[in-house]
Write a structure and sequence with these properties.
Blueprint lengths: L22 E3 L1 H11 L1 H20 L6 E7 L14 E9 L5 H67 L5 H36 L7 E3 L12 H7 L4 H22 L6 E9 L4 E9 L9 H66 L5 H36 L3 H17 L1
Parallel strand pairs: 1-4
Antiparallel strand pairs: 2-3, 3-5, 5-6
Length: 427
Amino acid sequence: MKKLLYTSALAVLLWQPTLAGAETLDKQAALQRALQNNPTYKAALANIDAADGSRLQASLPPNPDAVFEIENFAGEDENEGFDGAELTLGIEQTIEMGGKRSNRTKVADFSFQISKEQAKAQALSLLAETEYAFIRVAVAQERMALADKRLDLADKTHSIVKKRIGAAKAADIQHTKADIERAAAEVEKRKTQKELVTAQNDLARLLGVMDASGLDIETDLGALPDLIEKQALLDALKNAPQSQAQEFAKMQARSSLDLARSQGVPDPTFGLGVRRFNENDSTALVASLSFPIPVFNRNQGGIAEAKANMIKADAQSYAAGLSLRQSAIQAWESLASSLEETSRYQNEIIPSARKAYSQADDGYGRGAFTFLDLLDAQRTLYEVQEARLDSLLSVYEAKAQTDFLMGTHKPLIEKLSQAHMKGQTNE
């Protein structure tokens, strides 16, 4: 009965949570490892198994009662001892009326369906978070490369200034400013190293590994993602696991009301047994029928509670839909603006800043520009490169959110689930 998603949490260990030495990881491999090893997702899978057990339990009828009775013993005269005793051995069965078991099973089945959708949402959220964490590491690695270039640039500028001072073509203060610029570049490099370690640790947590010090990310940050159609994103919300879970919650609330009403119907208990009469060594059948009289308790409170919960479920579903739609609009707007900003940095601003620095560098060596011109061009180049990386993070943060809302990684989830089920079958 196991479907694609609700495989046992204990059986999804397809990859050991360790990283042996330096390892290059692409995005697809990172997403697969997150699904296979992340403990939060394993807990969501366990919730599905628990809901499946609750569904089975709800479908079971009540157990019969074995009855043994002894009457007319330890009395006086002919009833002294067990001579006149009457022994009865029977069985009693309560029959659930009003569709109690059917309604109870429906409520449990909707809990099972909700758990499945919540697990899907958890998986998609995990993959979106992993996708962004992956890019954070890639950006941190590029920041490290940029910090190295900045330090090399500062060293180069320092050498140029030193030569000009030696040739008596520059003041000593320029040497001091060059020293400051190089020191600032060294500080920035140490800061960037710390950011890289933090980003690697965040990704390691999502992948379910303890150590990510040897993790190296492989991706092309220059290739920007495409902007999806806004309406396509909004249309996809109807099939999002969060929306489906809310729909199942509404249906469960209605089934809970049916269950509450059926619980107000009294359940008869039938009994059948054999009675032995010690007085004359004879036996006879005994039958009984009993049922509660619904004078005081007709489950009025339970019905009122179920009606209120049904209204609550409808309101929560509507509120969740509004929130989901608003999140989608904000994510799309953020993606659109960030893509435009990053594109301008890559295609216009950074090439211009490089050209300006090259001109200032050449001109300063010939005495055509001042040291301040060179320093300003150097700082501008570094700042726009940093700004481009900040903009890239905004792009992929918004993209991860839209991927989550659109269910972009559903095929990967189903593929890994099918592969795991096939492996279990072969075993």
